[in-house]
Structures are given as C-alpha cells and as structure tokens.
Design brief:
41% of the residues lie in helices and 22% in strands. The chain contains nine helices and 13 strands. The strands form three sheets. Strands 7, 8, 9, 10, 11 and 12 form a six-stranded mixed beta sheet that branches. Helix 2 packs across helix 8 and helix 2 runs antiparallel to helix 9. The structure holds arginine. Arginine binds next to loops. The site of arginine (ARG) has 15 residues, from loops.
Length: 254
C-alpha cells in the first residue's frame, strides 16, 4: 500500500516536473524581447494591410532588423502624427513609416541612418493642363496627409488656407478624383499605388521635394546604434534590396 502511494506521488511529481519543463521551454521561446514598431499603415508599398496583417517594405525591413537583434517585432498601427509622440513616450520602441528626416523632427527624436530616398510628387487629374509643376500650385486647393512632409512643405509654400488635410493619403487622392481639390502632394511610391487604383489621375514629371526616409527613436535610445549596424548588414547582404524588389520592382533602392 505504502509503495503504491509512493509511486503515485512519484508519478505525480514526474508529471508536474515535466509540465514545468514544458512551460520553461515555452517561456524561453516567448522570452525573446519584443520590440514595438509604430507605424501608420496607410502608405503602400511601405506599410499597408493585407487582410488584418500589416505588410510592406517597412514592415519586412523592420522584421529583418528585429531578427538581427534577436527580438520579436510587434507592429502598432496609429495615426501618422501619433508616431513621434508614441516613440517619445516609450509606447513604441521605434517608428517606421516612410518617415522623412527633417530638422524639426530631429529635435524631437533620433533617426537611424537613412534607408530610402523618397520624393514628394504632385498628382492632378489626367486632363489637367493648367498645373504642370510646383509653380502652378499657387492659389490651388491642395490635398495632403495630415502631419506629413507633404503637409508641412505645401502649407509653407502655398499657405495654410489652400491646404486640405486628410487622415489618410488615399482619402486625399479620392477627393481629387471627385474634383473637390485640384492636386495632391504625397510621396512618390504611394502616389503610384493610389493613381493605379483611381482612374483619371496622373503624377506630374516634375517632383516637388526629395527627402530621406529613416526609422525614428526616442532621443538617446541605445537602440539606434544596434539598428544602424543591422541596417548596414541587411543592405550589404542584399536583404534590403530583395524586400524593395518584392514591393516596388527592380528600381534601385537608393
Ligand atoms: N514621408 C512623409 C513624411 O515623413 C510621409 C510619410 C507618411 N507615412 C505613413 N506611413 N503614412 O512625412
């Protein structure tokens, strides 16, 4: 009888310790530190939804960077103008959103090395012959995505009263399609995607401003150096180009 009890107890101990082992292994898996990326997933081909998943150049590039750092990437989608505050408050570890390096932003966050060149372009209706370049935008109604460099430059150059701000770049393009505004100023790659999706629009050949995209971090974050090393490695080994190629084609990445 005693023996029986002992073996039952032993068995129970074994089962328990096995379970403990199991969960230890699990927690080792999930112990990988998570790194949180703030983005605004309204910006194809950099970040956008495919079903309920955020995909795109930034999403994949960030995942590759996280892997290099031995971390697990978590993406938080938010309004574009919430990204810097999220990074400053530590709600996110970094921002990746086709974000342009500007002096003003540099005073709020630290930037990684730049990983892409973007261009602000002008979209108008296909049959528009009046607006052929930036100079013709004076006095016109210009649509932009709130808080983007398109917004900042266009309101500076053409006056706040001529700017119509939208939460999503796509909404600005739709409004243009409906003839409610005269032009949209937005980054070149999303412009291409949006124009393909909306009939009757064209992108002007003359670009408006050229700019550098980088990831942003809380000021003095230790992550910047590690991420810069990862960026350099992913550029050197061709990973970055492969990601760009997947989303944009063979156009050179920089
Ligand atoms: N490059 C522009 C900027 O930094 C637009 C970026 C918009 N990005 C986005 N994910 N919606 O202001």
């Amino acid at each position: 009888m005693k023996k029986k009890i002992l073996s039952v107890v032993l068995a129970a101990v074994c089962v328990l310790s096995l379970a403990a082992c199991g969960s230890k292994a699990d927690s080792k898996e999930s112990k990988k530190d998570t790194i949180v990326m703030a983005t605004n997933a309204e910006f194809p081909p950099y970040e956008y939804y495919e079903g309920d998943k955020v995909v795109g150049i930034d999403a994949e590039f960030a995942a590759a960077i996280a892997e290099k750092l031995g971390m697990e990437l978590k993406i938080e989608d938010m309004a574009f103008d919430s990204i810097i505050p999220a990074v400053q408050s530590g709600k996110a570890d970094f921002g990746a959103a086709g974000m342009t390096v500007t002096d003003e932003r540099k005073s709020q966050v630290d930037f990684s090395d730049s990983y892409y060149t973007g261009r602000q372009v002008i979209i108008v209706k296909e049959d528009n012959t009046e607006i052929t370049g930036p100079d013709d935008l004076t006095g016109k109604k210009i649509g932009v995505q709130l808080g983007t460099t398109g917004d900042i430059y266009a309101s500076g150059d053409y006056g706040d009263e001529n700017i119509e701000r939208f939460n999503k770049g796509f909404e600005a393009v739709q409004s243009l399609g409906q003839g409610k505004i005269d032009a949209v100023v937005i980054d070149d790659q999303p412009a291409k995607t949006f124009v393909e999706e909306n009939e009757g629009l064209k992108i002007l050949d003359t670009e408006y401003v050229e700019e550098d995209y980088a990831l942003c971090f809380k000021k003095d974050s230790d992550l910047v150096d590690q991420v810069n090393d990862a960026i350099a490695a992913l550029k050197a080994d061709g990973t970055f180009d492969k990601i760009v190629e997947k989303y944009i084609g063979t156009e050179t990445a920089e």
